[in-house]
Every structure is written in structure tokens, then in C-alpha cells.
Specification:
Distance between the termini: 6 Å
Number of helices: 13
Low-confidence stretches: none
Number of domains: 2
Mean pLDDT: 94
Helix content: 25-40%
Number of strands: 24
Shape: globular
Radius of gyration: 21 Å
CATH class of the largest domain: Alpha Beta
CATH superfamily of the largest domain: Enolpyruvate transferase domain
Strand content: 25-35%
């Protein structure tokens, strides 16, 4: 079990142009290449465990993958092939849930599994709506836990599904299933969740119509008549990964960081807006806009104040652990609500955040759907556990820039941000041990 120790940092100025490529877009670019009949070109694909597992699955489904430098060429098969072995998604809930939607309408037998953490995460939120339109999905706990077995059905029913939650993974799974349904489908959610799937599929020529009706976000999907256009995409840097260093600049006095070439998709930069609301200086500089708006984000230190976060939660759900570190040093009380989804991520992030903050001397309390940080103050050096969750591990290593910190079980960082420790070592001393 790898441990990482980080020492308190002095003020720093840093320009980072090696932030890990966006994981969500990387997953989707590999999967969506299977929807075309011509080779897709993908540059700057994330070379992390989760996304490499997705590439392996795409290859097992019949695609030919050619690598040349930083460029992948994925040539799809004439039709998705039935694999002769299980499909291992590793630690990726995105991978497993989206593959459920992609494979539900394909003739064949497919088994999806993952590591021990992924096998404990709920899958009924995808399996149940897919079953309601004719998909044959089973697994442990009546299909709620992986391994999941899918008997693809090429005659999925057209549907109108009103999701009770705003979830990009559920939405994406249902949109992918809708592409192979027998008629036009409608999916709605209470608020807009991250919309990479819609943007990318529209860019490939899929017929999607998007509306906002009485506050609900609606997507109308026409089934595929012909294969989609191939992708020609450069994956932007991941604003969720970059956010750890945004928080670093916001909590270390006198610091400034320039984060280069990120997606500036409005559903991906909400956490930066919360950080700005807390008092940090945050600037967005858009440079281009094709599949996604892309540009730089500049964050500078300023005294932070407590904040209540209860809106647009689907847009910042992954950044909340890192945001809790900013809350822990801010003046005044901070509250996070409407974030029950945190309990079913790679860990129970509500419990892990609160438990680890208490170890650091911060007064914090769990809520059913969030937490309260009673009074931000001085973080104390501590030994904390990642709970097997990459975002918890990285968040508390960033906290160590203020107080010093030892984080246990950090192998999980490699699932999403392989060069995180290398970048962190540009700010402070980092020691790795067993």
C-alpha cells in the first residue's frame, strides 16, 4: 500500500500545460468511435488505467487501434463483435455504465466487471431503465452490482424516460441505447448534467434535439439510420484534475497558477466559480470552440470565506472533495447540500471527507446529502486514508501544502492523473514510500 508524504509549501507561481487529458472525453472518444464506419483520429488521449481499460474493451469489441506518438487511430469493425472474455472496466463507473447503454442494443453476450471498488458501486440506476426498454442485463444483487451480464437486444423499444436524478452517466447510457431503438426517444433529467455525450454525438452527426422545459433538461434522440461521422478530436486537459492545483493556489498565500488548454464547458467549471465566490481570483480565457470550448484558467491566492453550495451539484460533484479543502481553510462556515451522489462514488466521499478533515483538526459534520464545515481554520498535519478513492487522495495531498500530510493507499491516483505527484513536487517536497 503506497503512502505519500507532502511538506508545507511556500508561495509559488506555476504554469501547467501537462494536466492530465480529460477523462470523460477520453472514455467517450474511444467508445463513440464504434458508432462510425470509418477511422477516428484521437490526439492527447488520457493514458491512465481507467481510460486504457476502455481502449482495451473497444479493441475486444473488434476495433483496430493504431498508436503513433500522441495520436490514436481507431478503426471500427463492420459491426461490434461478441468478445471471447470478460470486459474489465477497472475502477471506472463511467466506463461500466456507458458500455451498458452502448452494448444493450447490440446482438451478442457481454460481461462487464471491474476492481473491488467498482464491483461495490450501484448499477441499478442504469440497469433498471435499460431493462424497461427491452435490454437484458443481470448481475449480483438483481443487477445492481457487477459483474454485469448483458445479452444484447437489437430491438430496443422507443422510450420516454424521466430520470429522478441528474446524472451524466445515466443520461449517456440511455442516449447510446436510444441510438439503436425502434423509434425516437426522449430522455429528461431535473437539471442539466455534464453534456459531453450530447456535444460529441451532435458533432458526429447524430440527430439530437435539446430543450429546457419547466426547468427540466430534455434530449430527443432519433435512432441511427447510418453510421456516424468519425471523430477528429484533440482531448483537452481535464478541469477536474486541474482543480486540485487551482485549490493549491487558492490556499497557499502569494501563489498563482495558470492552467492551460482546459475544456471550458460550462458544466465543467462550476467548481472554479464557487472558488471565485469564496474570494479567490479566477479568470477564464477561451481560445477555441469545436466539440468543446477550450482555453486557460488563471487562479491567484486571496483570502477565502465560507460558502453554501447547493445548486448545480451535478456540475461539480467530482470537485467537491478538493473544494472541501478550500472550505477547511476559509473564514466562516461552509455547507454542501443536495450532494447525496457523493456517497456512491469511488468511495462514500461524504464520510471520507468528514472523517479525514476531523483528523486534520477541522470541525466537520456529515449530512445525509452533504456536510458542514463549522469553522474553517488551521489545518493540522495528519495521517489520513484515501478510502481507495483517487480524488480523496489528491485532495488531502493538496491540504498538505498548508500543514504537511501523509496519505495512505495512493495507488488509486494512477487511475485518473498519472503525473499528479510529478506536478505536486514542483510546489513542495513529495516523498513516496510503502
Amino acid at each position: 500500500m503506497k503512502k505519500v508524504r507532502v511538506s508545507p509549501a511556500k508561495s509559488f507561481e506555476l504554469t501547467i500545460d501537462t494536466i492530465a487529458p480529460d477523462k470523460s472525453i477520453s472514455h467517450r472518444s474511444a467508445m463513440f468511435s464504434l458508432l462510425s464506419d470509418r477511422p477516428s483520429t484521437i490526439r492527447n488521449y488520457l493514458k491512465a488505467e481507467d481510460t486504457l481499460n476502455t481502449l482495451r474493451i473497444v479493441k475486444r469489441l473488434g476495433a483496430d487501434i493504431h498508436k503513433e506518438g500522441d495520436m490514436l487511430t481507431i478503426t471500427p469493425p463492420s459491426s461490434i463483435q461478441e468478445p471471447d472474455d470478460i470486459l474489465d472496466c477497472g475502477n471506472s463507473g463511467t466506463g461500466m455504465r456507458l458500455f451498458c447503454g452502448l452494448l444493450a442494443g447490440v446482438e451478442g453476450f457481454f460481461v462487464l466487471t471491474g476492481d473491488k471498488y467498482l464491483r461495490s458501486r450501484p448499477m441499478a440506476r442504469v440497469a433498471v431503465p435499460l431493462r424497461s426498454i427491452g435490454a437484458k442485463i443481470d448481475g449480483r444483487a438483481n443487477g445492481d452490482k457487477a459483474p454485469l451480464a448483458i445479452r444484447g437486444n437489437s430491438a430496443l423499444e422507443a422510450f420516454e424516460y424521466d430520470s429522478p436524478i441528474a446524472s451524466a452517466q445515466v443520461k449517456s447510457a440511455m442516449i447510446l441505447a436510444a441510438l439503436r431503438a425502434k423509434g425516437e426517444c426522449k430522455y429528461s433529467e431535473p437539471k442539466l448534467s455534464r453534456d459531453h455525450t450530447e456535444r460529441m454525438l451532435q458533432g458526429m452527426g447524430a440527430r439530437l434535439q435539446i430543450k429546457c422545459v419547466d426547468g427540466r433538461y430534455e434530449v430527443f434522440v432519433e435512432p441511427l439510420q447510418n453510421p456516424l461521422e468519425p471523430l477528429d478530436i484533440t482531448i483537452p486537459a481535464d478541469p477536474s484534475s486541474a482543480f486540485f492545483f487551482a485549490v493549491a493556489a487558492a490556499i497557499v498565500p502569494g501563489s498563482r497558477v495558470v492552467l492551460k488548454n482546459l475544456t471550458l464547458n460550462p458544466t465543467r467549471i462550476e467548481a472554479y466559480k464557487v472558488l471565485r465566490k469564496m474570494g479567490a481570483k479566477v479568470e477564464f480565457v477561451e481560445k477555441e470552440n469545436r466539440y468543446e470550448p477550450i482555453g486557460d484558467i488563471v487562479v491567484s491566492y486571496n483570502e477565502l470565506h465560507g460558502v453554501e453550495v447547493s445548486e448545480n451539484i451535478p456540475w461539480l460533484i467530482d470537485e467537491l472533495p478538493a473544494l472541501s479543502i478550500a472550505m477547511a481553510v476559509a473564514k466562516g462556515k461552509s455547507v454542501v447540500r443536495n450532494a447525496k451522489e457523493l456517497r456512491v462514488k469511488e468511495s462514500d466521499r461524504i464520510a471520507c471527507v468528514v472523517d479525514n478533515l476531523k483528523k486534520c483538526g477541522i470541525k466537520a459534520e456529515e449530512l445525509e446529502d452533504g456536510y458542514v464545515i463549522e469553522e474553517g481554520g488551521r489545518l493540522q498535519a495528519a495521517k489520513v486514508n484515501s478510502c481507495g478513492d483517487h480524488r480523496i487522495a489528491m485532495s488531502f495531498l493538496i491540504a498538505g501544502l498548508v500543514s504537511g500530510m501523509e496519505v495512505e493507499d495512493t495507488e488509486c491516483i494512477d487511475t485518473s492523473f498519472p503525473n499528479f505527484l510529478e506536478l505536486l513536487s514542483q510546489i513542495s517536497e513529495v516523498r513516496v514510500g510503502d
